[in-house]
Amino acid sequence: MNRHFLIAQISDLHIKAGGRRSYGVVDTLGALRRVITRLNALEPRPDIVLITGDLVDFGTAEEYGTLREALLELLMPFYLVPGNHDDCEQLRQAFADHYYLPKRGRLHWTVETHPVRLIGLDSTIAGQHSGLLEPEQLEWLQTRLSEKPTRPTLVMLHHPPFPSGIGHMDRLGLVGAEALERVISRHDQVERVLCGHLHRPIQKRFGGTVACVCPGTSHQVVLDLRDEAPSRFTLEPAGYLLHMWDPTHGLVTHQAVMGEYPGPYPFFDGDELID
Predict the structure, then answer these.
(1) Which site from 32, 40, 164, 236 is most exposed, i.e. has the minimal number of CB atoms within 10 Å?
(2) pLDDT digits (tens, 9 = 90+) for 162-218
(3) Can you give the three-state secondary structure of the chain, one letter per residue?
Protein backbone atom coordinates (compact mmCIF):
# COMPACT_ATOMS: atom_id res chain seq x y z
CA MET A 1 0.00 0.00 0.00
CA ASN A 2 1.32 3.45 -0.90
CA ARG A 3 2.36 5.51 2.12
CA HIS A 4 1.93 9.26 2.20
CA PHE A 5 5.05 11.42 2.38
CA LEU A 6 4.56 13.62 5.44
CA ILE A 7 6.24 17.02 5.79
CA ALA A 8 6.14 19.00 9.03
CA GLN A 9 6.67 22.76 8.90
CA ILE A 10 7.68 24.85 11.89
CA SER A 11 8.71 28.48 11.94
CA ASP A 12 9.87 31.49 13.91
CA LEU A 13 11.69 29.67 16.69
CA HIS A 14 13.46 32.82 18.00
CA ILE A 15 15.91 30.79 20.09
CA LYS A 16 17.99 32.63 22.69
CA ALA A 17 21.09 31.40 24.50
CA GLY A 18 21.61 30.95 28.23
CA GLY A 19 17.98 30.23 29.07
CA ARG A 20 16.92 33.80 28.30
CA ARG A 21 13.33 34.53 27.32
CA SER A 22 12.44 36.28 24.08
CA TYR A 23 11.18 39.82 24.81
CA GLY A 24 11.68 38.93 28.47
CA VAL A 25 8.53 36.78 28.36
CA VAL A 26 8.64 33.83 25.96
CA ASP A 27 10.48 30.58 26.72
CA THR A 28 11.22 29.90 23.07
CA LEU A 29 13.65 27.04 23.73
CA GLY A 30 11.11 25.25 25.91
CA ALA A 31 8.49 25.77 23.20
CA LEU A 32 10.78 24.32 20.54
CA ARG A 33 11.55 21.29 22.69
CA ARG A 34 7.82 20.66 23.12
CA VAL A 35 7.24 20.83 19.36
CA ILE A 36 10.16 18.46 18.72
CA THR A 37 8.78 15.99 21.26
CA ARG A 38 5.37 16.18 19.56
CA LEU A 39 6.77 15.68 16.05
CA ASN A 40 8.92 12.74 17.13
CA ALA A 41 5.87 11.08 18.74
CA LEU A 42 3.44 11.51 15.82
CA GLU A 43 2.11 8.39 14.13
CA PRO A 44 2.89 8.34 11.32
CA ARG A 45 6.02 10.32 12.04
CA PRO A 46 6.87 13.12 9.58
CA ASP A 47 9.49 12.15 7.03
CA ILE A 48 11.14 15.58 7.06
CA VAL A 49 10.81 18.95 8.83
CA LEU A 50 10.97 22.33 7.08
CA ILE A 51 11.88 25.37 9.19
CA THR A 52 10.96 28.68 7.58
CA GLY A 53 13.19 31.24 9.23
CA ASP A 54 13.75 33.35 12.33
CA LEU A 55 15.59 30.39 13.74
CA VAL A 56 17.19 32.49 16.48
CA ASP A 57 16.52 35.92 17.96
CA PHE A 58 19.68 38.00 17.42
CA GLY A 59 21.84 35.89 15.11
CA THR A 60 24.66 35.12 17.55
CA ALA A 61 26.91 32.07 17.49
CA GLU A 62 25.72 31.14 20.98
CA GLU A 63 22.09 31.18 19.86
CA TYR A 64 22.87 28.96 16.89
CA GLY A 65 24.72 26.55 19.16
CA THR A 66 21.64 26.30 21.38
CA LEU A 67 19.42 25.88 18.32
CA ARG A 68 21.58 23.15 16.82
CA GLU A 69 21.66 21.17 20.06
CA ALA A 70 17.86 21.28 20.26
CA LEU A 71 17.22 20.42 16.60
CA LEU A 72 19.50 17.39 16.76
CA GLU A 73 16.78 15.78 18.90
CA LEU A 74 14.60 15.52 15.79
CA LEU A 75 14.38 11.95 14.52
CA MET A 76 14.04 13.03 10.90
CA PRO A 77 16.02 15.27 8.50
CA PHE A 78 15.35 18.99 8.71
CA TYR A 79 15.92 21.83 6.26
CA LEU A 80 16.43 25.53 7.04
CA VAL A 81 15.91 28.91 5.41
CA PRO A 82 16.91 32.18 7.14
CA GLY A 83 14.60 34.91 8.39
CA ASN A 84 15.09 38.55 9.28
CA HIS A 85 16.31 37.69 12.81
CA ASP A 86 19.01 35.38 11.43
CA ASP A 87 22.65 35.99 10.56
CA CYS A 88 23.29 34.01 7.40
CA GLU A 89 27.01 33.52 8.02
CA GLN A 90 26.50 32.34 11.59
CA LEU A 91 23.75 30.02 10.37
CA ARG A 92 26.01 28.65 7.63
CA GLN A 93 28.80 27.96 10.13
CA ALA A 94 26.53 26.34 12.71
CA PHE A 95 25.04 23.98 10.11
CA ALA A 96 28.11 23.47 7.93
CA ASP A 97 27.28 19.76 7.74
CA HIS A 98 23.98 20.50 5.97
CA TYR A 99 25.06 19.57 2.46
CA TYR A 100 22.32 21.55 0.69
CA LEU A 101 23.40 24.92 2.15
CA PRO A 102 25.79 26.73 -0.24
CA LYS A 103 29.27 27.48 1.10
CA ARG A 104 29.09 31.13 0.05
CA GLY A 105 26.60 33.70 -1.19
CA ARG A 106 22.86 33.66 -0.74
CA LEU A 107 21.35 30.72 1.11
CA HIS A 108 19.33 29.46 -1.87
CA TRP A 109 19.22 25.69 -2.28
CA THR A 110 17.47 22.68 -3.76
CA VAL A 111 16.97 19.18 -2.37
CA GLU A 112 16.16 16.40 -4.82
CA THR A 113 16.12 13.29 -2.62
CA HIS A 114 12.44 13.17 -1.59
CA PRO A 115 9.16 12.50 -3.44
CA VAL A 116 8.60 16.27 -3.45
CA ARG A 117 11.37 18.59 -4.64
CA LEU A 118 12.38 21.31 -2.16
CA ILE A 119 13.60 24.79 -3.10
CA GLY A 120 14.73 27.20 -0.38
CA LEU A 121 15.02 30.95 -0.93
CA ASP A 122 16.94 33.50 1.13
CA SER A 123 14.71 36.58 1.37
CA THR A 124 16.77 38.38 4.02
CA ILE A 125 18.35 41.83 3.94
CA ALA A 126 21.26 42.13 6.37
CA GLY A 127 20.36 44.43 9.25
CA GLN A 128 16.73 44.89 8.20
CA HIS A 129 13.45 43.16 9.04
CA SER A 130 11.76 43.47 5.65
CA GLY A 131 12.52 41.00 2.86
CA LEU A 132 13.81 41.20 -0.70
CA LEU A 133 14.04 39.01 -3.78
CA GLU A 134 16.28 40.68 -6.35
CA PRO A 135 16.11 40.00 -10.12
CA GLU A 136 19.09 37.63 -10.04
CA GLN A 137 17.47 35.64 -7.24
CA LEU A 138 14.27 35.31 -9.23
CA GLU A 139 16.27 34.32 -12.31
CA TRP A 140 17.90 31.57 -10.22
CA LEU A 141 14.45 30.35 -9.16
CA GLN A 142 13.16 30.48 -12.74
CA THR A 143 16.11 28.35 -13.87
CA ARG A 144 15.62 25.80 -11.09
CA LEU A 145 11.90 25.45 -11.78
CA SER A 146 12.48 25.13 -15.53
CA GLU A 147 14.90 22.25 -14.96
CA LYS A 148 12.19 19.86 -13.73
CA PRO A 149 8.78 21.04 -14.91
CA THR A 150 6.92 17.85 -13.97
CA ARG A 151 8.45 17.34 -10.54
CA PRO A 152 6.13 18.34 -7.64
CA THR A 153 7.88 21.16 -5.81
CA LEU A 154 7.67 23.14 -2.59
CA VAL A 155 9.19 26.63 -2.53
CA MET A 156 10.04 27.96 0.92
CA LEU A 157 11.10 31.41 2.11
CA HIS A 158 10.64 33.41 5.30
CA HIS A 159 8.74 36.50 4.15
CA PRO A 160 5.20 35.91 2.83
CA PRO A 161 4.74 37.37 -0.67
CA PHE A 162 1.42 39.07 0.09
CA PRO A 163 -0.07 41.58 2.55
CA SER A 164 -1.87 39.98 5.49
CA GLY A 165 -3.84 42.97 6.76
CA ILE A 166 -1.71 43.07 9.94
CA GLY A 167 -0.27 46.48 9.23
CA HIS A 168 2.87 46.51 11.35
CA MET A 169 3.92 43.16 9.85
CA ASP A 170 3.02 44.14 6.29
CA ARG A 171 5.35 47.10 6.62
CA LEU A 172 8.11 44.49 7.04
CA GLY A 173 6.99 42.61 3.94
CA LEU A 174 8.68 41.25 0.83
CA VAL A 175 9.97 43.52 -1.92
CA GLY A 176 9.77 41.63 -5.20
CA ALA A 177 6.60 39.73 -4.33
CA GLU A 178 4.86 40.57 -7.62
CA ALA A 179 7.84 39.37 -9.62
CA LEU A 180 7.94 36.17 -7.55
CA GLU A 181 4.27 35.58 -8.35
CA ARG A 182 4.99 35.93 -12.06
CA VAL A 183 7.71 33.29 -11.81
CA ILE A 184 5.58 30.90 -9.77
CA SER A 185 2.62 31.30 -12.15
CA ARG A 186 4.70 29.87 -15.02
CA HIS A 187 5.31 26.60 -13.19
CA ASP A 188 2.28 24.55 -12.25
CA GLN A 189 4.43 21.92 -10.53
CA VAL A 190 4.73 24.26 -7.52
CA GLU A 191 2.41 22.70 -4.93
CA ARG A 192 2.91 25.32 -2.21
CA VAL A 193 4.86 28.44 -1.33
CA LEU A 194 5.72 27.96 2.36
CA CYS A 195 6.50 30.95 4.60
CA GLY A 196 6.83 32.15 8.18
CA HIS A 197 7.35 35.67 9.59
CA LEU A 198 3.73 36.45 10.49
CA HIS A 199 3.45 34.08 13.49
CA ARG A 200 -0.07 33.11 12.40
CA PRO A 201 -1.60 30.43 10.15
CA ILE A 202 -2.59 32.27 6.97
CA GLN A 203 -3.27 31.06 3.43
CA LYS A 204 -3.67 32.87 0.12
CA ARG A 205 -4.04 31.92 -3.51
CA PHE A 206 -0.76 32.93 -5.14
CA GLY A 207 0.60 32.45 -8.64
CA GLY A 208 -1.74 29.55 -9.39
CA THR A 209 -0.84 27.71 -6.21
CA VAL A 210 -1.33 28.33 -2.47
CA ALA A 211 0.94 30.34 -0.18
CA CYS A 212 0.88 29.00 3.39
CA VAL A 213 2.14 30.88 6.43
CA CYS A 214 3.08 28.71 9.41
CA PRO A 215 2.20 29.72 12.98
CA GLY A 216 5.07 30.30 15.39
CA THR A 217 6.39 27.53 17.60
CA SER A 218 6.00 29.83 20.62
CA HIS A 219 4.41 33.29 20.53
CA GLN A 220 1.90 34.51 17.95
CA VAL A 221 1.35 37.97 16.49
CA VAL A 222 -1.89 39.54 17.71
CA LEU A 223 -4.62 39.25 15.07
CA ASP A 224 -5.57 42.93 14.82
CA LEU A 225 -6.60 44.18 11.37
CA ARG A 226 -7.00 47.85 12.29
CA ASP A 227 -4.78 50.19 10.27
CA GLU A 228 -3.37 51.71 13.47
CA ALA A 229 -2.87 48.40 15.31
CA PRO A 230 0.28 48.40 17.47
CA SER A 231 3.04 45.81 17.17
CA ARG A 232 2.21 43.18 19.80
CA PHE A 233 2.43 39.45 20.43
CA THR A 234 0.31 37.00 22.39
CA LEU A 235 0.78 33.60 24.00
CA GLU A 236 -2.01 31.98 22.02
CA PRO A 237 -1.36 28.25 21.43
CA ALA A 238 1.68 27.58 19.27
CA GLY A 239 1.32 25.44 16.19
CA TYR A 240 2.80 23.77 13.16
CA LEU A 241 1.70 22.58 9.72
CA LEU A 242 1.62 19.05 8.33
CA HIS A 243 1.75 18.77 4.54
CA MET A 244 0.69 15.32 3.33
CA TRP A 245 1.86 14.43 -0.17
CA ASP A 246 0.10 11.74 -2.15
CA PRO A 247 1.06 11.26 -5.83
CA THR A 248 -2.57 10.57 -6.75
CA HIS A 249 -4.33 13.31 -4.81
CA GLY A 250 -1.60 15.94 -4.42
CA LEU A 251 -0.72 17.93 -1.32
CA VAL A 252 -3.06 18.36 1.65
CA THR A 253 -2.13 20.79 4.45
CA HIS A 254 -3.25 20.44 8.07
CA GLN A 255 -2.76 22.92 10.90
CA ALA A 256 -2.07 21.51 14.38
CA VAL A 257 -1.95 23.40 17.68
CA MET A 258 0.20 22.69 20.70
CA GLY A 259 -1.19 22.10 24.17
CA GLU A 260 -3.11 19.50 26.16
CA TYR A 261 -6.88 19.44 25.75
CA PRO A 262 -9.74 17.16 26.89
CA GLY A 263 -10.40 14.14 24.66
CA PRO A 264 -10.36 12.39 22.32
CA TYR A 265 -13.97 11.27 22.70
CA PRO A 266 -15.91 8.80 20.51
CA PHE A 267 -18.71 9.86 18.17
CA PHE A 268 -20.38 6.43 18.24
CA ASP A 269 -21.43 3.81 20.78
CA GLY A 270 -21.19 0.67 18.70
CA ASP A 271 -23.00 1.55 15.46
CA GLU A 272 -25.12 4.27 17.05
CA LEU A 273 -24.33 7.99 17.14
CA ILE A 274 -24.10 9.03 20.78
CA ASP A 275 -27.13 11.08 21.85
Answers:
(1) 40
(2) 999 999 999 999 999 999 999 999 999 999 999 999 999 999 999 999 999 999 999
(3) CCCCEEEEEECCCCECCCCCCECCCECHHHHHHHHHHHHHHCCCCCCEEEEECCCECCCCHHHHHHHHHHHCCCCCCEEEECCCCCCHHHHHHHCCCCCCCCCCCCCCEEECCCCCEEEECCCCCCCCCCEECCHHHHHHHHHHHHHCCCCCEEEECCCCCCCCCCHHHHCCCEECHHHHHHHHHCCCCEEEEEECCCCCCEEEEECCEEEEECCCCCCEECCCCCCCCCCCEECCCCEEEEEEEECCCEEEEEEEECCCCCCCCCCEECCEECC
